[in-house]
């Protein structure tokens, strides 16, 4: 399966959010979208599954323009796990997850759907929540339920908007590892927006780095997650080391958010300090 | 993640899930039995020797087509039941059921517990139409008299509905936009109604006011076919849409990603609701409370799954209105709308308190 994004632009008002984006994503793979707040990561995902219509340009799924695909048809191919969920008029966890079967429901068999739901809940370690009301759950449990809903949809492409933002580190690692495994096992294309660069670097097959409504860089984690890219895109000073073939970011300092401070002066200071570090390192090597 | 609490087994989940469904069916059965009881009570005539048991017997025999000897006691009772009590009871059942299912649809579609069938201003439009007929005698159509009020109310109800539907195709309608537009429309019509009412005499004022609270008096077999046909077709459609309504309550983005064309679906719901509500309200007047409260009462007991809330709230709405009508009938001067609110509000209040104590919060 393949997503082709062709000169996509999007703006809510006169200010463009997505600025002439062209990108090919091939699957099966586990792809992570990185980028600071407000660069249009969610907007890009919403343009892929028709929650938003691009102002210009097109998105093609396996060569077919999404504009010509009905919302119902698209839902059979693309699953989506939102950042947060509405919990007024809550259902039980089972019923909430079972709604993921909605695009497939024709003359459905309840017990068959219950099987799919049960397996997914078990896989995510939340089967004990099955008959609880959705609104009684914690933020992290909410996220797992929504993840389960995306998985029972059994899509070819799964889009996730920060699916691990409310999880503790163990569950962040476990869920991300599981997503990578699923992309290989079920042969699906999983695209995940993430704010944790190290977890993305550890598990993603490919990383898309966005900046100012554009694709800044695409490639393997080692290609994209570099000190220079992080400085330009996130405005942080960091050291990227190699951990079993994957880049690992050690954060050093942030360029100041305070608009009264001149960033170039700060940068000069940082450069100076780094030069000092290097010279002392080289001295140590020599001695 | 093996350290997690002991989860359910696969069969345990299925069993518990089927039990939950059984509970819902029990509630439906209770409501239906309640309806049967109150139909009997309403049909109870003042004839000596015709008790509740005999009343059901008469109804049963009428349905089977058995006739009693002319002018006998049971013959009179049968006449009373069939010509006076039954149209009344059926009107209560139809109106209660229709308003309740419209309320369910509206609340789920808008994802707003305060929405009801009148949220888009339909009631104020209908009211304006009816009061034009009652106070000024203006008819929007060629029909006059009692049916003139009905047609006026129907046409009046369609004005806000069509306006909203027209706008929904041109601007992006969020639930908040819908409710605010509805509020604006209501204020406009209500001010016109107030003006018409202050300019009239006391007797006309009373009948105009009575129309505003809603009443089932004077319901005859003639009024029923339109109400019944619209309600049966409309609620069948709502039930077919009920799993989509569930998906809508997840929020707009999730609904789209699960294959629901949100804007078109909202439009369909609005049209459906407008027609159903208008068809009821033009005959009965503005019966409040049921459309808002019946769906909540059901949700508080069985949860928010619309595949069950839709049919069960119909039964609950019918039962509520029927019970209120029976009580109103005992104190012949109190309008049914008043009775319903006087008794229904404390019940609703208690259910909310009970559920909040049980679960921490209601939704």
Present the secondary structure layout.
The complex is a heterodimer of chains A (287) and B (363).
Chain A lengths: L1 E10 L4 E11 L2 E6 L6 H8 L7 E6 L2 E2 L5 H7 E4 L11 H6 L11 H14 L15 H14 L4 E5 L7 H17 L3 E5 L3 H7 L2 E6 L2 E6 L1 H4 L2 H8 L1 E8 L2 E9 L8 H24 L1
Parallel strand pairs in A: 3-8, 3-9, 6-7, 7-8
Antiparallel strand pairs in A: 1-2, 1-4, 4-5, 9-10, 11-12
Helix pairs in contact in A: 4-5
Chain B lengths: L9 H34 L8 H13 L8 H38 L11 H15 L8 H24 L6 H24 L3 H12 L10 H17 L1 H7 L3 H6 L4 H23 L5 H13 L3 H25 L5 H24 L4
Helix pairs in contact in B: 1-3, 1-13, 2-3, 3-8, 3-9, 3-11, 3-12, 3-13, 4-5, 4-6, 4-7, 4-11, 5-11, 8-11, 8-13, 9-13, 12-13, 12-14, 13-14
Gist of the model:
The complex is a heterodimer of chains A (287) and B (363). By secondary structure, chain A is an alpha/beta fold. Chain A is built from ten helices and twelve strands.
Note the overall shape of chain A. Answer: globular
Strand order, main sheet of chain A: write it out.
Answer: 6-7-8-3-9-10
The helix fraction of chain A, in percent, is 25-40%
By CATH reckoning, the class of chain A would read Alpha Beta
Structural features, described:
With 287 residues, chain A is α/β, with parallel strands linked by helices. Chain A has a single domain, classed as 3-Layer(aba) Sandwich (Rossmann fold), CATH 3.40.50. In chain A, 38% of the residues lie in helices and 27% in strands. Chain A has ten helices and twelve strands. In chain A, a hairpin with a 4-residue loop joins strand 1 (2-11) and strand 2 (16-26). Chain B has 363 residues and is mainly alpha-helical. Chain B is 76% helix and 0% strand. Chain B has helices at 10-43, 52-64, 73-110, 122-136, 145-168, 175-198, 202-213, 224-240, 242-248, 252-257, 262-284, 290-302, 306-330, 336-359. The two termini of chain B are 30 Å apart. The model of chain B has no long low-confidence stretch (mean pLDDT 88). Classes of the chains: A alpha/beta (287), B mainly alpha (363). At the A-B interface, helix 2, strand 6, helix 3 and helix 4 of A face helix 1, helix 9 and helix 10 of B.
């Amino acid at each position: 399966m393949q997503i082709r994004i062709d000169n996509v632009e999007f703006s809510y008002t006169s200010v463009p959010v997505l600025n002439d984006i062209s990108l090919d994503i091939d699957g099966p793979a586990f792809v992570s979208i990185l980028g600071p707040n407000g660069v249009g990561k969610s907007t890009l995902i919403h343009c892929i599954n028709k929650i938003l219509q691009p102002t210009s340009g097109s998105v093609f799924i396996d060569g077919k323009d999404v504009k010509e695909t009905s919302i119902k048809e698209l839902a059979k191919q693309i699953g989506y796990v939102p950042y947060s969920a509405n919990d007024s008029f809550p259902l039980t966890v089972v019923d909430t997850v079972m709604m993921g079967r909605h695009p497939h429901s024709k003359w459905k068999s309840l017990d068959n759907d219950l099987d799919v739901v049960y397996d997914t809940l078990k896989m995510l370690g939340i089967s004990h929540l099955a008959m609880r009301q959705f609104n009684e759950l914690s933020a992290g449990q909410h996220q797992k339920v929504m993840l389960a809903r995306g998985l029972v949809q059994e899509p070819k492409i799964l889009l996730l908007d920060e699916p691990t933002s409310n999880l503790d580190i163990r569950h962040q690692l476990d869920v991300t590892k599981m997503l990578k495994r699923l992309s290989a096992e079920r042969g699906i294309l999983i695209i995940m927006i993430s704010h944790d660069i190290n977890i993305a670097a550890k598990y993603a097959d490919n990383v898309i780095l966005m900046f100012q409504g554009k694709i800044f860089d695409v490639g393997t984690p080692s290609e994209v997650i570099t000190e220079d890219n992080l400085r330009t895109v996130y405005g942080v000073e960091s050291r990227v080391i190699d951990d079993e073939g994957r880049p690992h970011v050690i954060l050093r300092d942030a360029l100041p958010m305070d608009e009264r401070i001149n960033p170039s002066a700060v940068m000069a200071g940082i450069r100076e300090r780094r030069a000092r570090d290097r010279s002392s390192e080289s001295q140590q090597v020599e001695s | 993640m093996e350290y997690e609490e002991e989860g359910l087994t696969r069969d345990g989940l299925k069993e518990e899930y089927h039990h939950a469904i059984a509970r819902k069916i029990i509630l439906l059965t209770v409501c239906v039995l309640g309806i049967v009881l109150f139909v009997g009570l309403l049909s109870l005539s003042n004839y000596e020797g015709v008790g509740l048991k005999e009343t059901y017997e008469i109804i049963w025999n009428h349905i089977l087509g058995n006739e009693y000897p002319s002018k006998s006691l049971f013959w009179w009772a049968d006449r009373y039941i069939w010509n006076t009590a039954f149209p009344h009871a059926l009107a209560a059942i139809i109106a209660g059921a229709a308003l309740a299912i419209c309320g369910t649809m509206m609340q789920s579609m808008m994802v707003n517990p305060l929405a009801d069938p009148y949220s888009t201003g339909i009631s104020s439009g209908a009211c304006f139409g009816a009061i034009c007929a009652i106070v000024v005698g203006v008819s929007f159509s060629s029909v006059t008299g009692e049916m003139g009020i009905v047609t006026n109310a129907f046409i009046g109800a369609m004005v806000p509905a069509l306006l909203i539907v027209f706008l929904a195709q041109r601007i992006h309608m969020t639930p908040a936009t819908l409710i605010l537009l509805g509020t604006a429309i209501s204020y406009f019509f209500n001010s016109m109604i107030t003006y018409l009412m202050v300019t009239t005499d006391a007797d006309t004022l009373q009948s105009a006011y009575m129309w505003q609270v809603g009443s089932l008096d004077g319901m005859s077999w003639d009024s029923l076919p339109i109400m019944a046909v619209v309600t049966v077709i409309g609620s069948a459609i709502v039930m077919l849409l009920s799993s989509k309504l569930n998906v809508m309550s997840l929020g707009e983005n999730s609904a789209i990603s699960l294959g629901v064309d949100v804007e078109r679906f909202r439009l369909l719901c609005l049209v459906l609701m407008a027609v159903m509500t208008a068809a009821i309200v033009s005959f009965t007047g503005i019966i409040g409370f049921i459309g808002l409260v019946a769906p909540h009462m059901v949700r508080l007991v069985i949860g928010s799954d619309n595949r069950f809330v839709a049919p069960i709230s119909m039964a609950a709405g019918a039962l509520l209105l029927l019970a209120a009508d029976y009580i109103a009938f005992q104190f012949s001067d109190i309008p049914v709308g008043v009775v319903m609110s006087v008794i229904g509000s404390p019940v609703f209040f208690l259910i909310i308190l009970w559920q909040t104590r049980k679960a921490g919060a209601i939704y």
